[in-house]
Amino acid sequence: MPPTRQVYRRSPKVAGDATSGSTLILTEEEPITLTDLHSILIRVHAVSLNYRDVNIIHGTNPWAVKADGIPCSDAAGVVVEIGSKVTDFQVGDKVSPIFDQLAINGTEQSRQWLGGEVDGVLATHVVFPAEKCVKFPEHLSFEEAACLPNAGITAWSALMGTRGELQVGKTVLIQGTGGVSMMAVKMARVAGCKVILTSSSDEKLERVRRECENESRPKIQVVNYKTNERWDEEVVRLNGGRGVDIAIENGGNSTLKRTMGAMAKKGVIGQVGYLGGQSTAGLDGMLSTLIDKTITLQGINVGSKLDQDKMNQAIAANEMRLTDVIDRTFQFDEAIAAMEYLWSGQHVGKVVIQVKQ
Ligand SMILES: NC(=O)c1ccc[n+]([C@@H]2O[C@H](COP(=O)([O-])OP(=O)(O)OC[C@H]3O[C@@H](n4cnc5c(N)ncnc54)[C@H](OP(=O)(O)O)[C@@H]3O)[C@@H](O)[C@H]2O)c1
């Protein structure tokens, strides 16, 4: 008997226009069947939230999205049925769909973001083409694995740059204590880099500092970007008078100039976020620093399936655990509360929804 599923859908405030903001509606049980011979049916066990998922619900996301679409992009689950033409997966494999369904090797010129222009994963079961899914490292729980398809791969892409920047001994500046940032803290430390972390909250910084002390690695250094307006100078001071080699840039227009101030010569900035808004007023004079320091400013767009395979290989080889990256877990019927919790900004790391059946 084919399974049925429960699924959340957006219900736009202005009919047909999800950019107006939406409410989340949990649908009645509906049948789900595998009709495509190249697809797999996945029983979802965990979904992690990203800033973008809640931004869409609140109507403040800058990109077009499917009006009544299924939200969220990051799921981990088990294959329960395969199409007859599928060769790479078996029933029982632990898998995740990739975030950008068109990004197989990263050279594709268009995109299809899950939970945006196409249906996402906030459901008990989902069907995806097998080639748009990856197996995740066996040692991870579903909750940990659900942190990888967006936040994990974004952190990986920003740390790696285009030339494999993530190398032992480099110094990495990481902004904020959200999902992408905490994944980046984890990866940078495992790779043997020095980490300088910024936050608007001393409590959050202290919490991360203490958690990092539980690992047998050097301490991280921290700066409060809210109480210390000239935080770029403090970052350079903390690094012994030299700027940092890699930065995970989350503020965007509001922070980029200071991030450049915190860079070493030939440093690489991974431009991930735009949390500081769209005003360009703060960018005045930025280009002279870019040129003086021969900085590389690289836009980050999550990553491809190929990138995700490489990251998963690194996570498996290091048996990297991500339990301490998870701030809080919610149940499937608490999805709206989980989204509001993320929006409140109280979290440090990832917010995860368990999908028990
Ligand atoms: N380009 C990509 O491929 C990509 C992929 C994923 C996410 N993103 C973007 O990256 C950003 C972070 O995403 P996320 O899912 O990690 O979000 P998140 O979990 O909600 O974390 C956001 C955190 O960033 C910090 N923050 C807020 N405003 C800031 C500002 N003006 N300057 C510096 N830090 C600020 C805050 O940390 P504190 O409370 O510690 O200050 C906040 O908790 C978002 O803009 C998101 O849309 C981009």
UniProtKB/TrEMBL annotation:
Gene Ontology molecular function, alphabetical: oxidoreductase activity
Name of the molecule in the record: Enoyl reductase (ER) domain-containing protein
Pfam families registered for this protein in UniProt: ADH_N (PF08240), ADH_zinc_N (PF00107)
Organism the protein comes from: Zasmidium cellare ATCC 36951
Xref: PANTHER family: PTHR45033, ZINC-TYPE ALCOHOL DEHYDROGENASE-LIKE PROTEIN C1773.06C
Residue ranges of every copy of the Enoyl reductase (ER) domain listed in the record: 21-353
